[in-house]
Design goal:
(S)-ureidoglycine aminohydrolase cupin domain-containing protein; UGlyAH_Cupin_dom; 1 helix; 7-stranded antiparallel β-sheet; mainly beta; RmlC-like_jellyroll; RmlC_Cupin_sf
Length: 108
């Protein structure tokens, strides 16, 4: 039986890094990134560019449209959300985060 793991939707995975080091955060320049926040609730989001974000506070459960997996992350987590992902954010604790869109996805 053929495996369908090479389908394009399966590579849209959210990567969560728990408790990145202070030096890594400084290297990324996270404190200079813009901030975004939201109150608890459900949000339908579509990412047109890869986003890297660092949660200062909050708790989120994300379910993606093209798979049945849910990903949870919260305060202190560094999260990479792939370009092209459609998902629902179920925010249980208000979010405050630094974020940055990856501009390297544009052709040079």
């Amino acid at each position: 039986m053929a495996s369908s793991s090479s389908s394009s939707s399966s590579n849209l995975r959210i990567v969560v890094q728990k408790n990145p080091s202070e030096s890594q955060l400084n290297e990324l320049g996270i404190k200079s990134w813009p901030k975004w926040g939201c109150s608890p609730g459900k949000y339908q989001l579509k990412f047109d560019a890869q986003e890297t974000c660092y949660l200062l506070r909050g708790k989120v459960k994300v379910s993606t449209k093209n798979s049945n997996e849910t990903v949870e992350f919260g305060a202190g987590d560094l999260v990479i959300i792939p370009k092209g992902l459609s998902c629902t954010w179920d925010v249980s604790v208000a979010v405050d985060k630094h974020y940055k869109f990856d501009s390297s996805s544009h052709p040079n």
